[in-house]
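## tool: complex_structure
## caller: assistant
## args:
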Amino acid sequence: MSGSRFYITAAIDYANGAPHIGHAIEKIGIDAMARYRRLCGQAVHFVLGMDEHGLKVQQSAEAAGISPQQWVDEIATRFEAAWRRLAIGFDDFIRTTQPRHERAVAEMVRRMAAAGDFYRGSYEGYYCVGCEAFKREDELVRNERDELRCPVHPGREVTWTHEENWFFRLSSYQDRLLRLFDEQPDFLQPEGRANEIRRVIEGGLEDISVSRARLPWGIPWPGDPEHTVYVWIDALTNYLAAAGFPDGDHERLWPADYHVIGKDITRFHCVYWPAMLMSAGLPLPRHVWAHGFINFGGAKLSKSEGVRFELEELIERHGPEALRYYLLREIPWNGDGEWSLERFDERYVSELANNLGNLANRTISMIERYRGGVVPGRRQEIKDQQIAAAVLRYRGVMDANLLHQGIAAAMELASYANGFVEARAPWAQAKDPARAAELDDPLAALARVVATLATLLQPFMPVKMAELGAQLSLPDPVPLDALTGLDLAGRPGARGPVLFPRPEQEKKPTK
Ligand SMILES: [Zn+2]
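## result:
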């Protein structure tokens, strides 16, 4: 057991549509978290995947005239392609129709049954097909025609349903769950979200129905093949299955360091899931991080419902890395944020093309022009303190998963360096033969800033920052701890293709 492997998971996406920007920001954010840990020298295991069972999948497949398996295969291919396009560096892609997952779920059910936590009961209530969940009346709202509707799926009817099911004794875990939140105040992050869940638990927990009698597209209930395992035991167990459970070596990864989820599914990850793990006698994840949503002109954009965005169009607009940058810069990772196409264009030009792109370009072209394409030896110049301060600030906020602030710390260093270039005007110095030798210092300092930025921004723009680092002959990436002692003297510096072409250049790629 290594003990130091950082296991981070994304909520698996429901296989019932195309990947959209709500799915994308989650994966991009987790990828940045994972890449940051790698920059810190940690071994990371990052898993994402697909939730492929359930009534909606079955219905969609029927409507398309194909088998549910064909349907989910096709959707999984599309999601995986989108994540590769966005340079999401995942280590594993788990699908709940895989045999390894079905084995894990069956073992989970057996363990919970052995703990005496299931009983047969009858369930009746309103059922929302959109949520695939029974709803209490107080969880529903009335529309203008006085019909009861699920607030998340106002366009779908809720139906009164009765069936015999297996129930999980969630109610008996109330005390242990409260103790969890007492003993581990940082179990659910960001700060503040735990109070909400505490109130849910304090309000009393009802047992939950965990099987379905009339849902063939699911994992058969061990020992009761008339039933299939209902969505939450099925879906949540993916985190264990991806770690290799029930085989012994799952302890190499489990417990997870972070489950990163959208805030709409916090209750399932912070009440149901810990209770299920307690029942099965398994360790709990160390942290759950519940990120917020993108607001789009006032409308909420969650994983399950909301404005559909042509993800591909947004990727095409300024390239995949610019989209990654914009989303994590604009939408706070610990809260909600507003999407705006205008802001995207604006930030692309002012921050990526003008600030960062310009700094990189002018630094490396001066090294080419004035120093024959070789980074000069460094001498003491003002930069070192600013660089060290920026790195320190960056690490502090990144350790706290405040990704948007991590970008801000890096970009402030870029702005500072551009200001330094303007004030120092090395090109003027270069024209004066008496002072040309003094150019070594500012050029060495600027090269150091550029190298630092290539590392700090690597979690956000891994492909572009590798290109930038290559312009200074740097390895991809330079780990954070190696930045301090990094010696750039004598390295070849040569410009590559423009990192962030301005929109007018994007249209006319030749110069
Ligand atoms: Zn619903």
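## assistant note: DSSP finds 19 helices and 19 strands in the chain. Residues 341-371 form the longest helix (31 residues). Handing back to user.
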